[in-house]
Amino acid sequence: MTFNDRYWMKHAFRKALFGKKNGEIPIGSVLVKDNNLICSSHNSCLSLLDSSAHAEMLVIREAGKKLKNYRLNNTSLYVTHEPCFMCSAAIINSRIYRVVYGSYSSNKNSFSNFMNLLYIKNVKHHIKDIRSGVLLYECSNLLKIFFQNKRNSV
């Protein structure tokens, strides 16, 4: 893990905290190219009334507009939680080079526990570099406490 991984994950974590303040599931994401921030976002499914408005999806959409290209070559995506199947497919299709994530899915029945697209090497545009567990404690605790509070408030 490089110093930059921790730095950019902290930025993604701050985005997750911002989303949490707005009642969203606290997941944040940033996209970086040449150690420069391209864009950042947090989950916005509730506020946008859009089930696909995950932090990664919003970052990919915004980056395409900013870079004027759907191919996000030579970029690194930082996300506070392991990308879901939908986001993994978008990451692969956008040709993101590197993915760094914080926490893992703890649900043993989670789709990513038996098939994670990011790790499949025989697809045409596979991810070249994947790092996991960056700020693991902070990222997993944020989600754990968020969902505990949700369950306790019901």
From TrEMBL:
Keywords, ordered alphabetically: Hydrolase, Metal-binding, Zinc
Gene Ontology biological process terms, A to Z: tRNA wobble adenosine to inosine editing
Cytoplasm as a keyword of this entry, yes or no, is: no
Citing just one GO molecular function, the answer is:
zinc ion binding
- Taxonomic superkingdom: Bacteria
InterPro entries in the cross-refs = APOBEC/CMP_deaminase_Zn-bd, CMP_dCMP_dom, Cytidine_deaminase-like
Q: What class of enzyme is it?
A: hydrolase
Enzyme Commission no: 3.5.4.33
CDD domains (UniProt xref) = nucleoside_deaminase
Record domain CMP/dCMP-type deaminase: where: 3-114
What PANTHER family does its record include? CYTOSINE DEAMINASE FAMILY MEMBER, TRNA-SPECIFIC ADENOSINE DEAMINASE
- Report what the protein is called: tRNA-specific adenosine deaminase
Source taxonomy lineage? Bacteria, Pseudomonadati, Pseudomonadota, Gammaproteobacteria, Enterobacterales
